[in-house]
Amino acid sequence: MTRQRLQVLGRARLVALITLVAVILAIIGNVVISKVFGFQTTWFEDVVRATLIPMYLAPLLSWHLVGGFYKLDRLEKKMSRLAKIDGLTSVYNRRYFYQKTSDWLLDESNWNKKYAFFVLDLDFFKRVNDRYGHLCGDRVLEEFGAILQRLAPSPNVVGRLGGEEFAVFLPDISQKEAENLAEQICQALRDSLIEQEEEKVSSTVSIGISMNRNNDQSSIEHAFKYADLALYDRKKSGRDGYRVYFSDT
């Protein structure tokens, strides 16, 4: 809370505040020392002497100190983001994705609610990398991450599990809503063309969906298992689409 208040002040105002405090303390200290040791100076001389030095030194020193504080704060925020976010796609990384979804399942207010778990795998992604290069492949991953974030915003949780595999956790959702979203995701990726030199690269995605209920038997591992089975089934039957499985919870 204290750090947030200091940030609101801004660097220039914070330096001015430190300077003002330094001047006031210097004046008080100078007056006290003069009285204790019996120095014969006027009040005006005390104020001038105690004011000039802090007014010159405090801004110079505090400007760099405050600047270091802000740099440290920005670095901490960046490190915090890197610990949560996949650097390429800007969705949650695997670890933080599982943490977010587990937190929802453990929340008592979400007890017995339905939720859906998507596992999404870009079809024939290796061919894209082999034919067009990894830079093009990275652009496909970036675009797909953006599609997922746009179509499944908070409170849904989007994460990259690794490579071309993603996951989406959708709390308190019906089967029909989950299927509609899956179709929107498939269509959005079909419509998204990545320009590569004189070609336009198109991609498709296969989606496995597990429909679950949050109870004693429920867990992310359980939901993932059924979504992964549904994904495998979809890939066997032609890819570019989705399949829904129901967990036994």
TrEMBL record:
One of its GO terms (cellular component) is plasma membrane. Its cofactor is Mg(2+). It comes from the Bacteria. It is an enzyme of class 2 (transferase). InterPro entries: Diguanylate_Cyclase (IPR050469), GGDEF_dom (IPR000160), Nucleotide_cyclase (IPR029787), Rev_trsase/Diguanyl_cyclase (IPR043128). One of its GO terms (biological process) is negative regulation of bacterial-type flagellum-dependent cell motility. Keywords: Membrane, Transmembrane, Transmembrane helix. This is diguanylate cyclase. It catalyses: 2 GTP = 3',3'-c-di-GMP + 2 diphosphate. Its EC number is 2.7.7.65. One of its GO terms (molecular function) is diguanylate cyclase activity. Residues 113-247 form the GGDEF domain. The chain crosses the membrane at residues 12-33, 53-72.
